[in-house]
Amino acid sequence: MFKIVTERLRQKYRTVPYPAKDPVLPQRFRGKPVLHDAQPESAAAAVNACPTGAFTQKEDGPCLDMGLCVFCGACANAAPGLVTFDGGHRMAALAREELLVRPDGDGGAAHEPATPADLRKLFKRSFRIREVSAAGCNACEADCNVLTTVVFDLARFGIDFVASPRHADAVLVTGPVPRNMHLALRKCYDAMPGPKVVIAAGACAISGGLFKDLDQEAAGVSPHLDIDLFIPGCPPNPYTILDGLLRFLERRA
Question: In terms of CB atoms within 10 Å, which of 97, 128, 188, 234 comes out highest?
Answer without folding.
Answer: 188
